[in-house]
Amino acid sequence: MLSHYSAAYSNRQQLREFGMKMWTLSCATPVAYPANSVRVSMPSVKAPSSSQISFQHNESPFVPEVVKAVDSLYSEFRAVDNLVACNTSRVLKAFQNVRLGSHHFSGSTGYGHDEAGGREALDQAFAEIVGAESAIVRSQFFSGTHAITCALYAFLRPGDELLAVAGAPYDTLEEVIGKRDSNGLGSLRDFGVEYREVPLAEDGGLDWDCLMHALKPHTKCALIQRSCGYSWRQSLSVNEIGRAIKMIKMQNPNCLVMVDNCYGEFVESIEPPSVGADLIAGSLIKNPGGTIAPCGGYIAGKKKWVEAAAARLSAPGLGIDCGSTPGDVMRAYFQGLFLSPQMVGEAIKGTFLIAEVMASKGYQVQPLPRATRHDTVQAVQLGSRELLLAFCEAVQRSSPVASYTKPVAGSTPGYASEVIFADGTFIDGSTSELSCDGPLREPFAVFCQGGTHWTQWGLVLGEVLKHI
């Protein structure tokens, strides 16, 4: 028996020594790597010669335009990596502060009253990450529009005014506000809430002069949309949002500020609550879900208003300590949130690459090549219905899911115009995986977002350039 264990120990020791030697070889520089064979005490390992390697150094899976763009974007990609490290650090710190453990992944059923602490830990961690007093992160939010709507209804009452300070809001909010007829289904306008917009400046940014005098005594809520939406405009930086909030509060200290944070999470090192936003809201199948959250949304900000928004999601009196979440979903939320800085970083690199390549072909792009990014959306003005359809079809063909299908433009709930979507994603509507879409109206711009790695867009662009 002893000899058996001794022999087993000896074999394990040899395997460890062999593994250490192979690890040393794998970490060696190309110059030091042996050209022919390696001899060790265990079975010999023959290193492949250059003729045996199918992928040669002088080959590339990318078209020349992409190769040239990648070579020119080294400093931008390096800066993104530094941002990813910074944001990953704050997520990690928040997880450590709530003492995240595997028991938090157990989930719950029914009313969710017997929840094992994951819901509370997730809310606390999310609030710390975005610099807010409180947060509610729930699978029961259908979409970002749903979360934003709950936040607006938390603020506004009959006779109040809602002021959009960054031009027209995203299409799906038009029926929520009552800008487009909701057919009596309960828009803010149906409940007696007034609405105004501050038009954008000629350069596509906020009109600071107009905003300086825009508020009225009954303006109860100012809505700031961080991302460009379907508008050909600049997305807003957190510093610009902070400047707008100061202007708003100077005119009317009682006016509450709601920020539509969709596509903006983790693009900078701070979020809007850090500069005075009363509430922010967004979707978990965009940036903060890390491409693996299967559904849901969030609201974060001042504790009082988070609780009021939670009452719009559920019902007054139920509070935030209810609502079941299956264990596999709860784990995906934590894991997705941890991965999200990295996934957002890759999406940002994708926007740089798209802008660089498409601008080199003469197309107008927003943001401009190498400009600082404030969201994960890259718009390209294609100029015609045919080119917009061709671009989206090329993206769909390059997708991992449903690549054999052809996207067709049509009417979609919440949108005023015909819209075309290309989103061959593992999670339905998960724009953070890799997608593009656009309304079929002038100037026929396509809006690209997501990508789990920038190389995805590198490959997609090769297909796009064949057909436009």
Automatic annotation (TrEMBL):
Gene3D superfamilies on file: Methioning gamme-lyase, C-terminal domain, Type I PLP-dependent aspartate aminotransferase-like (Major domain)
InterPro entries per UniProt: Met_g_lyase_put, PyrdxlP-dep_Trfase, PyrdxlP-dep_Trfase_major
Pfam families xref list: Met_gamma_lyase
SUPFAM superfamilies associated with the record: PLP-dependent transferases (SSF53383)
The protein, known as: Methionine gamma-lyase
